[in-house]
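Example record

One chain of 264 residues, shown exactly as stored in the release files.
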Amino acid sequence: MTPEQHRAAAAQLWQAEQSGQQCGLLSLAYPDMGMDDAYAVQSALIGLRKSAGHRVIGWKIGLTSRAMQQALNIDIPDSGVLMDDMLFDDGAVVPVGRFIQPRIEAEIAFVMRAPLSGAATRAEVIDATDYVCPSLEILDTRVLRADPATGRARIITDTISDNAANAGLVLGPQRHAPDTDLRWCGAIVTKNGEVEETGLGAGVLNDPVMGIVWLSQRMAQYGQQISAGQVILSGSFIRPVECPTGSNIRADFGAFGAVSVRFA
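Predicted structure tokens for this chain:
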């Protein structure tokens, strides 16, 4: 893809977000799109969001579980950018129409005390982290999940371009030391009081800290870095839960804490 095509694809995604009407699969419009192209489209999309007055507050890591990777026929995670207008308070009500097809995932969030530049080790990630806390990621898709004419499903380049499907995040109030054994940190996720999903932190690359290690390595390839004060969503250890109007979501992490959000 050319830089002009990167910008054109980003403009489609931005228009979809603003209008609430999904655009077609970018992977069909640009069949030669590669992973580098997809991240270039994502970067152009974030540029449009910055131009609209929003600022970067962190990063998200996606597709960390084997089940989700196998579903998309890939063997690596992906990443997206968190921005200030995406952050919701614990217990917040998401207004009607804010998202197109919202879903949620339960994750462990890392809040950084110090920057990470270049490929970091596990020990360096822990040392640079201020605290970890329970969180929910709100997913949305500005790209159709499948092409209506061919039935073809979106693929990894569509997802990466679409900011790795990120749309929002909710942080729980509890704070824990980053050297906590997060492999055994799990959650029971309910929707309207009914259990929808359960999972353990080990579902994220066998250790959520390794999600941050992976992110630092990916960012090093693109000349980026994790900054002090940023929030990093380390990856989901449950399948996405659909959140139509009226969904009341709560993730109970036991002694680790809890976090909730409601969709009006």
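Notes: DSSP finds seven helices and 15 strands in the chain.
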